Amino acid sequence: MTTTGLSPAAIALNRFGLGATPLAAAPGDPRRWLIGQFDRFDARPASFAALPDAGAMVKAYRDQRQALRQVSSAAPSPIDGVATKPAKSAEQMVARQDFAQDVQALYRQAVQARTQSALETQAPFVERMVHFWSNHFCVSADNPQTSAFVGAFERDAIRPHVLGRFEDMLLAVEQHLAMLIYLNQIQSIGPDSLAAQRALTRNPAKQRGLNENLAREIMELHTLGVRSGYSQSDVTEFARALTGWSVGAQGPRDDGNADDFAFRPNLHEPGSRAILGKTYAQPGVEQARAVLVDFARAPATATHVASKLARHFAGDTPPLTLVSRLAASFTNNRGDLPALYHTLIDSPEAWAPTPVKFKTPWEWTVSALRGLGREQVGQLQMAGVQSQLGQPVWKPGSPAGWDDVAASWAAPDALLRRVEFAQRLVAPIGDTLDARTLGPKLMPASLSAGTADQIGRAESPGGALALLLVSPDFLRR
Amino acid sequence: MLDRRRFLSFSGLGAGALLVAPRMALATVATDRRFVFIIQRGAADGLNIVAPYADPAYARLRGALAIDPSSATKLDGTFALHPSLVETAKMYGQHQALFVHAIASPYRDRSHFDGQNVLETGGTQPYQEKDGWLNRLVAMMPSAREQAIALAATVPMALRGAARVTSYAPTSLPQPSDDLLLRVGQLYAADPQLHPLWTSALAAQGLAEGSAAKQDPASLGTLAASFLSKPDGPRIAMLETGGWDTHSGQDARLAAQLKALDTLVTSLRDGLGRAWAQTTVLVATEFGRTAAANGTGGTDHGTGSVAMIIGGAVKGGRVVADWPGLAPSALYESRDLKPTAALDSLIAGVAGESLGLDPPRVARMLFDRSDSVTGLIAT
To answer: For B19, which of A142, A392, A451 is closest by C-beta distance?
Structure first.
């Protein structure tokens, strides 16, 4: 490979940031430029703030469905589908279709908001960390309810805490309705809770009880990490502790907000819980909160988070020295995220002068848009584009989030798609940008001779720009 | 040798009936026999797919979720097939389908992601093996008669390894100009990672011309069959299905999943025509689900499940099971169906017999073990 070494400025712009732009000057002091972004980050940019209130929409839909159900059938059809469903009336079908369309429109608007924020941000490194944490605490928009709230989830649970403490982000995430719905928590009921006792008297045939999905994924994916020493019993006990964690407006008589966390004491499993050798005797909502706080401070969590962070900046198989240093920083600073980012920025392993990561479709598209100087997402339908490129935004289809290794993204079809998209992207630009000067600007003192040569020999200005965007240099960071 | 064996893979981007659109990958090897692996990601509920209706504990554990034997296809005196598997039931009647119950990979914890890694790599621990057993299987075959091709955005773990993988998926983006394609090829010529990917991408482009771009299970089965039935086409395929993680609302979701699977296999069969007689389809999942229903109309992560073997080459019409029972004392960790059969042995035997390879050798090369379950495929 004919790759010249990457300059620190190129690494700061492209590996830490979201990609250089044609107008901004290369940072003279890359480390300072990154740290300075902590003061420039906008947690609630206009595009995100403008997202409509999904809670009101879902509440209206639930009320409408409830009303239709009462009209069309005497037999109640529970939301969770436990009982056999009566045939849906035409009105119900229409209501469902309208809701699905509203949700899709809202999802697409949220993707546009995320893209807009990535294009206009003055803190691209912090914005990258938002994307990192959003993928770590993944809510996959696989059904209408999670699709409706996934934008609000990133805005309200991730963005406000990206420069805060891990513990606070964890609590915000696990109390957000997108997560509570996605991992089935709002349906989970303590087997000995008041609600379960009452349900048993009413209808002994209908079993209601625990769902351990959220408990397991918190331990496996959000905090401790898989194979870190917890048992099935720890998972079940934690699931019991989590019972009662729910959201407002779950019924027609509930005046609460569908997008607010609500603790429901009647659903909570009474008694104390034993998790990882510790007894939790706290009452009500405090019980699971105490467990979460302990998980957030556990050494296993520090290692888990450090490994993922190191993989994101120092290569698919990151140096263990970096993982240990990041884990120590996480522990010593009690999960303070800016301190963790400081440690990362001060680590030589993150500044390796050869490209260490193959960009994901999202990273590549954002860097291409920024590289071409686009400041407004405008009419570009980013949700559709990312589906075409193989990484539909917020839809990895699993709570583990997207993979962060090249093997998942560097595939033949993926390359062809990028070439197709690059050609489409440069078409309206024509000769207003010169790839020969743009290349060294986007990758200061780092563009390889081979790429510079090919760009110089392209048959048209547009062709040269497309080649720059799909060059080996630009596909990696 | 290895560079002549490439994979053909296919990625679904539209929303099919399966919650996650199925994806496909194929490999070209020199044989007339076909082997297809369908992975069910998310832990499919074996106890409701092939329901042990005669086990006295079944109805009690499952409650409202239990499959009603009067609406299901009775396979024998113990087991009944989920009513959504209409065509599969007919194939069972024609001795073209069999089920192996109470089966599991060596993995004994309950993480999807670790469980799928073990299932696909063929290791005994997560992330112990760096390549997939299907890739190693291709390496055991005589080399391909023609260069292979690919259709997929990404490559499933079971297919990753020394044998080069290529991919393709239908696109609505405008085709790049020939000039741009040529120059990109020059740009990647010296790049050890990008050059082979690009070569494969262009080959896949050529092969896929005229293929339907639809992503529903029927179209996917037909597309897979069209490649597998070409005289010099690929002989090994992998299809990925998702959406099996039924923590809630299981009845409706599992019924839809199985209907899609039934359609997928049927369209594959119909598309293969006479080649179906030499075809084996193996359907397997990373682990099963809890014996008891959970509190939310679903089931949580479990252990033992069921594997399906379908095809014209299968000696079917039976359920293979050393049934452990569902009594409280018989359950694994007091909650799951206890595995009494090893999925790795089954894969070794079925893949070996299907492709005319020596099953013990396949077991050694793929899973580093000596046992293999044989006698299930007509050789």
So the answer is: A142
